[in-house]
Write a structure and sequence with these properties.
The protein is mainly alpha-helical. The protein is built from eleven helices and no strands. It has helices at about 5-25, 35-40, 45-70, 75-100, 105-120, 125-130, 140-160, 165-175, 180-200, 210-230, 235-255.
Length: about 260
């Protein structure tokens, strides 16, 4: 039974729309705002419920975005599965530790992660690497498995998809091109998010109503963002820089709000 006010329900859809719109427009990083939006815009009070709920919403969106990439032939399934299975184990272990950390501490650490992601987004990319798709992918389990496990552990701890870690992890461990890595990463993003959500749901930390509203908004926002992306292709770098600065500003606010977690003030 819905427990949110009408305004909170609308804001939940709007928050999901913002995340989906950002992902569709600049192609990454948007999901990191899912947690602060639910906390500070919608007004949900339990950070663990927020993390568990957003993990499931991100998972559903990742699997849905995987379908067109699959049809286009960009997904390398052997690497995807070999990365995702140990990653799912890592995500489950990470989620257990995440639930053990108190509310203010996990939000403080989450804010630091947001700043790291924003800085990585600000770094210039090698355009050749982005536009080139490798046809020869060498899947070496001794490199892929540890990379998948460690990435999954971080994703599970914070309840995020972890795409910003998965893409370079796939490139490093298999040598695949950037386009293939982005497409293949969606399988792991979905798997990690689902694993984390199951762990949080088992502890009663998933709000199913909020998840449904978030997915609804995310789908609509994603369509709008993707359509607008083609018109603003030349401004993508500028949009990415502005968005990174927004992430840093939100993260600084979260750090300030949760300074007491480590007895800093």
């Amino acid at each position: 039974m819905p427990h949110l006010t009408a305004i909170q329900s609308i804001l939940s859809v709007l928050s999901g729309g913002i995340v989906g719109f950002t992902l569709g427009l600049i192609g990454g990083g948007g999901s990191i705002l899912a947690v602060p939006l639910l906390l500070y815009l919608v007004g949900l009070r339990d950070p663990h419920v927020v993390i568990g709920s957003t993990a499931l919403a991100v998972s559903v969106n990742a699997f849905m975005n995987l379908i067109p990439h699959w049809r286009s032939g960009n997904v390398r399934w052997k690497a995807a599965v070999l990365f995702a299975i140990p990653g799912a184990i890592g995500a489950y272990i990470g989620s257990i530790f995440g639930k053990m950390v108190n509310d203010n501490q996990i939000l403080f650490l989450f804010a630091i992660l947001m700043i790291v992601i924003a800085i990585l987004m600000l770094r210039p990319r090698n355009q050749a690497a982005v536009d080139t798709s490798s046809t020869r992918v060498k899947v070496q389990p001794l490199r892929v498995v540890p990379s998948g496990f460690s990435t999954g552990a971080v994703a599970g701890f914070f309840g995020i998809g972890g795409g910003f870690l998965i893409v370079p992890g796939l490139v490093f461990s298999t040598g695949m091109g950037m386009i293939e890595a982005i497409a293949t990463s969606l399988f792991s993003v979905g798997t990690f998010g689902l694993t984390t959500a199951v762990s949080y749901a088992a502890s009663g930390y998933v709000d199913w109503y909020v998840v449904a509203l978030y997915i609804l908004g995310g789908l609509a926002g994603g369509v709008i963002g993707a359509r607008l992306a083609t018109r603003m292709a030349r401004s993508k770098r500028l949009l990415q820089m502005v968005f990174s600065l927004v992430i840093i500003a939100v993260a600084c606010y979260m750090l300030y709000k949760n300074l007491s977690a480590f007895h800093i003030v």
